[in-house]
Design brief:
- By secondary structure, the chain is of the alpha+beta class.
- Helix content is 19%, strand content 36%.
- It has a four-stranded antiparallel sheet, with helices on one face. A three-stranded antiparallel sheet has the order 1-6-5.
- A hairpin with a 2-residue loop joins strand 5 and strand 6.
- The relative contact order is 0.14.
Length: 178
């Protein structure tokens, strides 16, 4: 039995959930999200409580049970509270500037790198070395934050680069560290 999949999801006030076949749509104060649930999993709603169930104990149904429940719970949290990821920039001369809706990064390359926010995502610069990525979809926020981190990954020798807030970089000893 799935420990996560069997937990019911309570729908908070101000959130509207509609289930149309395998498509679950969630509308809240911050926006609207929809997710197609995989075929063997069934979703039902009664008295503002969503239950996710599987028809049998097959390997496919078991693997999709907890995933489907978590995706629906993440959508409900996204339309009520939203998600944010914070990034830090470490390094001499590395900085970020807000240019309207876009961010311009100086990361030690010969040119500045401009990042445009995709639809549904807001990018903000806090000072010269902090970036905040926020939105209602957990998947999109994580993907945009990972793409920004990929512009200049943290260096294991000096620790320079873009990293998540609170991320610990495993430092390596240089060639003089024998």
């Amino acid at each position: 039995m799935s420990r996560i999949g069997v937990r019911p999801i309570t729908v908070p006030s101000g959130v509207e959930v509609t289930i149309d076949g395998n498509v679950v749509k969630v509308r809240g104060s911050k926006g609207e999200l929809s997710q197609t649930i995989a075929n063997p999993i069934t979703v039902s709603i009664e008295d503002n409580i969503i239950t996710v169930s599987r028809p049998d104990e097959s390997r496919e149904a078991r693997s999709l049970h907890g995933l489907s429940r978590t995706l629906i719970a993440n959508m409900i949290q996204g339309v009520t509270e939203g998600y944010t990821k914070k990034l830090e920039i470490h390094g001499t001369g590395y900085r970020v500037l807000a240019k309207g809706q876009d961010l311009e990064f100086a990361l030690g390359y010969s040119h500045p790198i401009t990042v445009t926010a995709p639809e549904g995502i807001t990018l903000a610069a806090e000072g010269a070395n902090k970036v905040v990525v926020s939105g209602i979809s957990k998947q999109r926020v994580g993907e945009v934050a990972a793409n920004i981190r990929k512009l200049r990954r943290p260096d294991p020798y000096k620790g320079k680069g873009v990293r998540y807030e609170g991320e610990q970089i495993r430092r390596k000893v240089g060639k003089a560290g024998k």
